[in-house]
Amino acid sequence: MTNGVVLFAFNNKNIDYVKQAIYCAKRVKQYLNLPVQLITDAVDYIESAYPFYKNYIDIVTYVPAPSNNATKTFNDGLYSSKRLEWKNSSRNSAYALSAFDKTIVIDTDLLISNNKLLSCFDTAEDFMIANHYNLINQGVEPSFDRVSNRSISMYWATILYFTKSNAAKTVFDLVSHIKDNYNYYRTVYDITETKFRNDFAFSIAVHMMRGFENSTEWPKQLPSDMWVSTDQDVLVNVDNNVIKLLAHKSYDYIPVKLTDATVHVMNKFSLNSFIDKEFTHE
Amino acid sequence: MDQRLAKALEFSNFLETQNNQKRIFLAQYKENLVHYTHGHKFTVTRELINFCHLLSEIQDEGLVVLDDNDIPFVISNIDEFVKELLSVYTSASHKYATDYETIRKNKSVQGLVDL
Asked: Cα(B87)–Cα(B52) distance, rounded to whole angstroms?
C-alpha cells in the first residue's frame, strides 16, 4: 500500500501556483515525510523555473488546465485586489489521477506545521474531508459554516483524504456529475455564487450521499486542525512551525502568531512574496 | 494625537491582540487533546484517563471503551493505552501552559507576537 499527497497547480497570469506547490511539498516532506504528486499543466515551466523541485516533488503528472473560464477577485489584504482567472475545477479528477492507494489532497496554499494528518492512514475510513476550522481572527468574517445562509453544512476541499475504494470513487463520480450540472445543483442548494467551487460541489455530494441529512455520522472528522486566514489578511513570515500574520478587522489589522498549526493562507500575493524570499536559499 | 488618547488606543490594541492569542491557545489546546489510535478518535479528558486507569486495575484484557464516534474500541493493552492518554494530556497541557506564559509575561503587542 502506498500513501502520498496530491497537489494541483494551474497558474494564472499573476499567481504562481506551481511555486506555491513546491513550497507546500517542502513542508509536506518536513512534517509528514510522504511522497508528493503534482498535477499541473506547467510541466515545462516547473523544469525551467524551479529545477530544485525534485527535492520535494516525486511525481509530476500533466493534465490540461481546466477551461471553465471562471474569474475571481483575489484580495491582497484590505487595500488591494485583482480580478483574475481561477482554474480550480480539476479536484474531481484526483481519484483517477492519484498515484497512491491512500491519498491526501491539499490546496497549495495550506501551510502544514504538524504531523496530525498522518493519522488518516490508520483509520478505516475511505473518504474524509475537512469540516472543522478556526478563523485566525474571530468575529469579523461571514461564517464559513454553510454553503449559504439557508443551506447545508460547508465542507472544505482544501483537505481531502481518500482510499482507492468504491465509496471514494462514488464521491468523486458524484462531484463530476454535480460539476457537469452545476447550475441546477447550485439553484437547488440555494447557492447564489455562480462560479463553480470545489468546496460547494463536495459539500453537495456529501449531503446527497448521506441520505440528504445533516448527519455527522459520515464522513468522519478529518484528523487535522485547519486555521483559516482569508485573503484580506496578510502573511508576514513563516519560520518552520511559527507562522505570523496580520489578521484584518474593519479597517485595520491585528497581529497573530500561530505555532504548530495547519494554516490555510488565502492571500496568494503575500504567500507568493514570502515564498520568493524563502526560495532564495534553494 | 493627544497622548491620553494615544495611550488608550495602544492599550486597546494590546488587549485585542492578547484576547485573540488567548482564544488561539485555548482552541489549539482542545485540538491537541484529540488522540487518534488504531483508527479511533478519543478526546482525552481527566474522566477518560481516570476511567481507563480504573479499568486497568479491575481487569487487563477484553476491555472495551467507546470512542468519540461511539464506535467500540477493544483495548489490547490497557496500560499502554493509559500511557498514551497521559502523554497526550501532559503534552497538550504543557504546550498550553508555555503559550499562556507568553501572555502573562508580555505587556505589549510586540512582546506577544514578536512582530
From this structure: 14
Interchain pair A255, B69: CB under 8 A: no
Task: Judge whether A264 and A233 are in contact, CB under 8 Å.
Answer: no
pLDDT higher than threshold 80 for residue A216: no
DSSP annotation of A150: T
- A43-52, A75-84, A239-248: range with lowest mean pLDDT: A75-84
Inter-chain CB proximity A257 and B41 less than 8 Å: no
Query: Which amino acid is residue A78, in one-letter code?
Result: L
Work out the pLDDT band at B39, boundaries 50, 70, 90: confident
| A80-96 pLDDT tens trace | 888 888 888 789 999 99
Q: What residue type is assigned to position B54 of the chain?
A: L
Residues in B touching A256 (Cβ below 8 Å): 17, 20-21, 24, 113
Q: What angle do CA B65, B71, B76 make, to 5 degrees?
A: 45
Which three cell numbers, joined as nine digits, stand for A72? 475571481
**Distance (Å, whole) CA B40 – CA B46:** 18
> Does position A68 have pLDDT exceeding 80, yes or no?
no
Q: Which residue do the cell numbers 536559499 mark?
A: A281
Of A227, A254, A258, the CB nearest to B17: A254
Q: A174 near A95, Cβ under 8 Å?
A: no
Bridging pattern class, strands A242-248 and A234-239: antiparallel
Mean pLDDT of B2-18: 91
Among A113, A222, A225, A243, the strongest candidate for a mutation testing the B interface, having the largest count of B CBs within 10 A, is: A225
CB atoms within 10 A of CB A126: 19
The residue whose grid cell reads 441520505 is A211
Would the CA dihedral through A258, A259, A265, A268 be positive or negative?
positive
Q: In this complex, is the C-beta atom of B22 within 8 Å of any C-beta atom belonging to chain A?
A: no
Smallest CA–CA distance from B43 into chain A, residue:
A223
- Kindly report the pTM of this predicted structure: 0.93
Q: Which three cell numbers stand for residue A175?
A: 462531484
- What is the arithmetic mean of pLDDT over A250-259? 90
Q: Which amino acid is at A171?
A: V
ipTM value, please give it.
0.87
